[in-house]
């Protein structure tokens, strides 16, 4: 508005001035006027330029302002996100730490229990190592000697003396049938066979004709039983 007023004043002044002066002056004035107009135009252009720049600046300022707000928001968001993340990590870490602590405690308990078990085992082992020889000895002496051996050949010679006879009564009889055999002879040696016996049947009682009786027992190379037992009686010969 100010600039418009200036232009108006200058054009008014020039018209008045031209009417009262010579041609020479008029020329000079015209030149001046031209200059002024040019100057005004320059100023005008400058003003526009300036205005443009101001507007541009303002736009730029608004832009910058927006950018600033955007960055601020971004920063705020990042800050919030990071805080949340950190809380989360803190929670997670605490939880893991507690778990670790629990595991540690459990492991400790197990270790103690394990070491106790180990100690007990050690004691038991030592006790065992003391007792083992005893047991072995026990087992050695505790042999079942009620069975006859393989490949046995035994003879019994019975003499009840002059004027007497021998009565033989089997009380137990268990041998391997046909292979482990008892022979009974009515003589001083293996000459007069009275009977041969094997298996589970108890042989009948036997009486010799004289003072002698002869018995043999042979076993083969396998299968063992309890064998036999018998009572021998001296009886008066009639
Ligand atoms: C971890 O366990 C120990 C004992 O085992 C206890 O003294 C300590 O307070 C525990 N720490 C946490 C964080 O639970
Ligand atoms: C077992 O016990 C004996 C004596 O009590 C000790 O010398 C030995 O080191 C123990 N062994 C172990 C594996 O603990
Ligand atoms: C003796 O040895 C037998 C096996 O040969 C076994 O079954 C038994 O338990 C042992 N007895 C003892 C007192 O060690
Ligand atoms: C001894 O042997 C007999 C006959 O084979 C059997 O019946 C008995 O049980 C045995 N005794 C022992 C202590 O092994
Ligand atoms: C047992 O008697 C038989 C028959 O007389 C004889 O051949 C054998 O050599 C005798 N065995 C023993 C061990 O005396
Ligand atoms: C033989 O038999 C009698 C009874 O008939 C019995 O008392 C005894 O124990 C038996 N002996 C053996 C060594 O088996
Ligand atoms: C009145 C006046 O100023 N006249 C001037 C016009 O311009 C010429 C040359 O530019 C001058 O010599 C005059 O004096």
From TrEMBL:
Cross-referenced InterPro entries: CUB_dom (IPR000859), Sperma_CUB_dom_sf (IPR035914)
Family matches, as Pfam families: CUB (PF00431)
Domain of life of the source: Eukaryota
Coiled-coil spans in chain: 61-110
Keyword Repeat in annotation: yes
Signal peptide stretch: 1-20
Protein name in the entry: CUB domain-containing protein
Xref: PROSITE patterns: CUB (PS01180)
Organism of origin: Mytilus galloprovincialis (Mediterranean mussel)
UniProt keywords, alphabetically: Coiled coil, Disulfide bond, Repeat, Signal
Domain (CUB) ranges: 147-235
Lineage: Eukaryota, Metazoa, Spiralia, Lophotrochozoa, Mollusca
């Amino acid at each position: 508005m100010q600039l418009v007023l200036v232009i108006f004043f200058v054009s008014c002044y020039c018209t008045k001035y031209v009417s009262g002066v010579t041609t020479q002056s008029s020329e000079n004035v015209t030149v001046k006027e031209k200059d002024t107009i040019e100057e005004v135009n320059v100023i005008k252009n400058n003003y526009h330029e300036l205005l443009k720049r101001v507007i541009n600046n303002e736009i730029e300022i608004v832009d910058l302002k927006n950018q600033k707000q955007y960055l601020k928001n971004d920063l705020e968001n990042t800050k919030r996100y990071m805080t949340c993340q950190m809380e989360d990590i803190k929670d997670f870490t605490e939880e893991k730490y507690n778990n670790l602590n629990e595991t540690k405690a459990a492991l400790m308990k197990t270790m103690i229990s394990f070491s106790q078990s180990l100690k007990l085992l050690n004691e038991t082992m030592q006790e065992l190592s003391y007792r083992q020889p005893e047991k072995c000895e026990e087992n050695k002496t505790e042999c079942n000697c009620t069975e006859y051996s393989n490949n046995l050949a035994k003879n019994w010679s019975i003499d009840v003396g002059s004027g007497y006879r021998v009565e033989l009564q089997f009380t137990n009889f268990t041998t391997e049938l046909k292979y482990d055999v008892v022979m009974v002879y009515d003589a001083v040696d293996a000459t007069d066979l009275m009977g041969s016996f094997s298996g589970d049947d108890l042989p009948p009682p036997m009486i010799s004709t004289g003072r002698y009786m002869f018995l043999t027992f042979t076993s083969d190379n396998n299968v063992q039983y309890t064998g036999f037992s018998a009572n021998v009686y001296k009886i008066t010969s009639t």
